[in-house]
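We treat protein structure as text, and this decision shapes the records that our systems exchange. The tokens are whole numbers drawn from a learned vocabulary of local backbone shapes. One such record is reproduced below, unchanged from the form in which we store it:
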Amino acid sequence: MSDAVLPALPQPSAGGTPIALVTGASSGIGWETARLLAGFGATVLVHARTTAEAEDAVERLVAAGARRDQLVELAADFTKLSEVAVLAGKVVKHYPALDLLVNNAAVMAPERCTLTDDGNEVSLQVNFLAAHLLAKLLRAPLSAAGDARIVNVSSSLHRTASMNWTDPHRVKKYSRVAAYAQSQLALTMATADMAPAGSGITAVSLNPGLCDTALLPLYGRVGAPAAEGAAAVVRLCLPEVSLINGEYYDGGELAPTAAAAQEERSQKRLAKLADQLVGRAA
């Protein structure tokens, strides 16, 4: 999908410029998503792991044609839930209405089981728990926007996964592929919970396609340019594109998801588990 296929983002009904937070925007699909959204007139909150990475991402966005005054650097290391909470606090303080939240930040599960200081398996925390926490802490500005959207960048690998309810960090029997796939299943399964009835928010997850990003080695195949994946993400950000809350999209089109992701009992169980795992950061 080329940039030209995507129409400009319309102004929000209350007037002013749409505000979008893109996590993991220092490279790959996240950076390309920020570039496209900025090109269509949005103010983009550019998240990266460190301040230096965020500043570098913004410099490259400006070099690619974005206006400097529509870009805001935000830094938070998602392996530390306290930093996720601080990031959310900054957004709430400065942006009473938030039109878009693109949960794109993701890491490969390492070769060996690795726990964060919060006690969570690192890919589960960065790929899912951080998004869960952001959606919870940013609900007020998202609801205030009137027709906000949350777009969770997931993976087709979620269909191969199962939730290990008794050992979600997979300490007893670890596989990096199983851990990563579980994080994507959790993100997909939790999507509907991020936009409860009456919130004025629509949340969806999607597979952006196999792209040439830092996650490509996990798939072991040749990927498309990251800009193609970003175009699929941005398409779901456009108000004129009708979405079904809680559903899963593949390359921008509605697609079947893993059966487990649609089980109401599992969704409720995951929401309870996620709240427990983010603990005091919430």
Q: What stands out?
A: The longest strand covers residues 201-207. The first helix runs from residue 28 to 39.
